Amino acid sequence: NKYNELHMNYIRYDGGWKSVNDIIVSGDSVSDIRFIDIDGDRKKEIFLNLSTASSSLNTVEGYSINNTDLTQCFKADCSAYSGVDINSDGVTEIVAIGLDSSEKLSVASAYRVTEHDYKVISTCNVDGKVLSYRQPIVSKLKDGRTALFVDAEKSGNSFATEIIIWDKQQLKAPLYDSVSMENTITLRQAEIFARDYDGDGCCDIPFLT
Q: How many helices (H) and strands (E) does the chain have?
């Protein structure tokens, strides 16, 4: 609009399409919109992935719907995020990766989100020596545990894949080296990304030989 504000308009059909709510959201543009049931009530919340020209990080905002009301239930700056029941408790969490390029530090945070609020339940460090993270893939490890596979672009046209799991009541990235502060185990000099290559239902990480 003329004030350079980004709006989310809630339109409902009642004999015709009508606007029942309009709110201002962060950012200059919307990268994507997701609908995730984060509190187990079978009603999906709205998550906006918002980008700003002045920042390398996006802002993710979550909104719950109650009749015609839109209530913000989540907000975090991150490079990538996913809705996933990471700790297998039957409730979907939001796992977001924040990237600080200047400090070469990245942190994955698991959030418990309710209809009105959110809180961090666990964090872990992930590879900070990256340029960007791609959106995570929700999959399973061979032992059946839920895992996020997150591809990252590093310098020199190289790539790596982080794995984020829930282990012993906390978030962990088992491939992350706390000494070098990066993941070199999956480092590869090719733009090839993690996916289920063999069709067994588990995500695979490519290696070059």
A: 0, 15
